[in-house]
Amino acid sequence: MTSTVVIAGAAESAEIGVVPDQSAISLAAESARTALAQCGLTPADVDGIATTLPPVDLAHYLGVRPHWLDGTMVGGCSYMLHVRHAAAAIRSGAASVVVVAHGESGRSRVGAPGWSPNPSSAVGQFEQPYGVSGTFSWFTLPAMAYLDKYGLGHEALAAVPVAQSAWASQNPRALRNKPLDTEAVLSSRLIAWPFHVLECCPLTDGGGSLVMMSAERAADLELQYRPVTLLGSGESGEGPGPSSMADLTTFAGFRDASADALRESGLTTDDIDHLMVYDAYAHIPLYGLEDLGFVGRGEAVPFIESGATLPGGSLPMNTNGGGLLYTHTGMYGMFAIQEAVRQLRGDAAVQIDDVHTSLVQGIGGMFSAAGTLVLANS
Asked: Could you write out the DSSP letters of every residue in 69-130?
């Protein structure tokens, strides 16, 4: 019988948003120590490390001598893949206590290196030389294709931050924590058509970590919070970016990763109480709702406008405010997982009543990679 794997500890860095006095590795290590303390553990108990930072460097910084390492880096959904890989390591006996850690000085750039596409890559050869640079310019094409296909105006994108502001305005840690209406979103500065500032993620600093182990190991510990069970996971990819998509209005990575995760969990979308969809830009949750099968094609905007994703709605979504409003260090996936865990263990800033299952959908790059987790509290 496959052993059950749980998230026994989950914590963010003490500060998120603007943290000018901490590097990425410091933010990751701080959150890791806090998550371990929730389990009554120390770095000496850890034998596995997964991170987008150099994993050996983080292990050394923490004082861990790892027997298992994962440095998978496919963008913001890397942490969903880390959770999936850590579960496999725990089930196989390759590791017993794994820390999945994220730290990024996205805004303050403390010790952060510069970045540019590899000139030998598809993006470096065929896109950047022609002026495609930055997430906003890569994402405009699919967003415009989606709006055109379903006969929507650019104001339809505003529905996403407006709905998520109902959560963020109640969350004291959210960077953008004011209630929004459509007029406020559309009057914010235009960045690249059709995106306004409030339809684009901010750039922040922060860290977050998870502590994973078998349910049997967790049962022997005095945990601060109830453990959260990993029911299913999936990972996939379609290509280097939008120019590689077979259809600009649907993402194969979302479809495949979520189908695998739900199949493994034995659940369907009808069984999901809570949804986190990575939202670096306002159009991504629309793809998520449709590609994951929560709504039909072209139905995502009316679904959000109906109030279904709001507090008290049938499918609470992005309940921390999402990457658009809560925080976005550059790779947001860890914070989506953190919020799902908080909801399931009952310590979220805006807590949902009677929540037992959560689906977390991550994206890597600009419609490049995808990772999905199905989590439960029982």
From this structure: EE---SSTTHHHHHHHHHHHHHHHTS-SSEEEEEEEETTT-TTPPP----TTSHHHHHTGGG
